[in-house]
Amino acid sequence: MKINKKLLIAVTGLIAILTLGPFLVPVPDLEGTTAPKILAFPDSNFVTINNLTIHYKTAGSGDPVMILLHGFGASQFTWQAVVPELSTAGRVIAYDRPAFGLTDRPLSWEGINPYSDEVQVNLVVDLMDEFGFDQAVLIGNSAGGKLATKTALAFPYRVTALVLVDAAIYAGGGAPSFVKPLLKTPQMQHIGPLIARRIQTSNKFLESAWHDPSKITEETINGYRYPLQVQNWDKALWELTIASSTSDLEEELETIQLPVLVLTGDDDRIVPTEQSIQLAEDLPNAELKILDSCGHLPQEECPEAFLDAVLGFLEHLE
After folding, report:
1. Which domains does the chain have, with CATH numbers?
2. Fewer CB atoms < 10 Å away: N or C end of the chain?
3. Which residues face 286 on adjacent strands?
4. For the segment 1-28, what is each residue's pLDDT rounded down to a tens digit?
5. Based on the number of CB atoms within 10 Å of its own CB, is 144 exposed (0-12), middle (13-18) or buried (19 or more)?
6. 260-265 vs 136-141, strand pairing mode
7. pTM: predicted TM-score of the whole model, two decimal places
């Protein structure tokens, strides 16, 4: 009986720690944050769609229309080195996906979660409708590549072609389904923003995304940190983490008949280069371009090679 009592006490104590412990962790409010529009750039634009205010930048004119979709932890900033040259080939729209950049970060809503994959796919098409064009080339990096692919599957008649840049198709993109209930508990909701702060403020992810981290400039670091001045960025990032789903796209890839450029660095340590090679093989109408001495963010680290590949691909669409 003594052993049983001790075991009962130990189990009870463990349950108490797991249940109450997270609530004892202090989560101080963020300081020095402000509204997104106060942080706007001279060339910033905002449009409200379905009660969500989206921050975007645009350049160029005519066809093709290119919509640029950034990855996790990034913003439209990731494309700044390549937009001027891309805009010589057509109209370019780069926007901040919900939970990033200067786009709205709602913490309450009616209906579908604005951070869900479903809303993010619909938002791509809603933006096309807002600007008055029927089709676009979707250029997506990492998680943005997953979004581009899901959009092409849901609305194939609205997508002219895909450029999938180190796309997170086979791995990543959300917590496994069996973990989701844990993430939604009051305990995790309490400490979740603290976890998000660690994810977003560390340079380790950015460094691992470059083949040669020594080339990362202070301007690049500041570009990633700038949106951390937006109110509730940490809570919104946690909401996105909860809402994101695993990709589960492998079986559908063969149905995509659009022309696709699969672009990857030869030293991608976030989405291993082998996965992009596999992606090009699994897509019926894809060509593969591997960039030498380049990591997960070719548009930042290897912009000239990135532009050569993308502009050459676009020329063949005409």
Report:
1. 36-317 (3.40.50.1820)
2. N
3. 260
4. 444 554 444 444 434 344 444 444 555 6
5. buried
6. unpaired
7. 0.87
